[in-house]
Amino acid sequence: MKKMAIMFSCFNREEQTKRCLETIYLQKDSLKDIAVDIFIYDDGSTDATLEMIDNFFPDAKVTKGSGNMYWCRSMNILMKQVRTLGYDFYLVINDDVKFFENALQIMYETYRMTNAHVGIVGACKSAVTGEQTYGGRDGKGNIISPSMQLKKCIWANWNCFLIDKYVVDHVGIIDGKFQHAFGDFEYSNRMNKYGFEIFISKDYVGECEINSKEGTCADKNVPRMLRLKKLFSPKGIPPYSYFRYNFKIEGIKGLLKSVYGYCSLIYYIFAGKDLN
Length: 276
Fold this sequence. Notes:
Blueprint (H helix, E strand, L loop, with lengths): L1 E9 L3 H12 L8 E9 L6 H8 L4 E4 L5 H14 L5 E5 L4 E2 L3 H12 L4 E7 L6 E3 L1 E2 L13 E3 L1 E2 L3 E5 H7 L11 H11 L4 E10 L16 H9 L6 H32 L6
Parallel strand pairs: 1-2, 1-4, 2-3, 6-12
Antiparallel strand pairs: 4-11, 5-12, 6-7, 6-11, 8-10, 9-12
Helix pairs in contact: 1-2, 7-8
């Protein structure tokens, strides 16, 4: 029997994490001849998240963090763990997705349709508007909608992302030197570079809302100095991650773009403009 590891990180989102786990556990035995295990990195939750997991999902494998790892570093740690345990499939998810009851089947069936070692990115939509929110994007950043057929993409959001051991053995794991963001798109670029294709799921796998800009560095209503502080923070656009990402994508050209791009971000903040 083959093995699949489902991985995600969490922090102080007890109800959201529970809802996500409930939707996954209802279908974890639905894949024929594949055993599914759940790996969670809790990055120092101070609410009752850990107690909830222990009470309702005691077989989930939990790694406890200090509270300063954030998403990318958390996923890097989990992928390192899973890699040593011989899993055949890696499914990375976000706990803010409410998965449909056939999500795992959709992901695996799409993978089987390709008959190759590929990445499959799950398409998510809004429960409010019904519009697509996350998934795969083309080279221009346009989101690609599922249509029950195989569709290639260039960039993949890791709200739901499936790869196999062969891909990991050749491409590696997510870059843990990023703090929070950028790691999923950088991994997409690495897959493209090494000749591994990415496809979107043949149908929607769940509901997930787009993160609000309210109260973030992108919100022009936040005081300027606080916006600047949020820009530099791990969940904003920290300079090291921003420069590292652009360098890994485009080399020296990317570094030069980073200088201009980051100066523009600072200018927009002091000019009282929104960041897109």
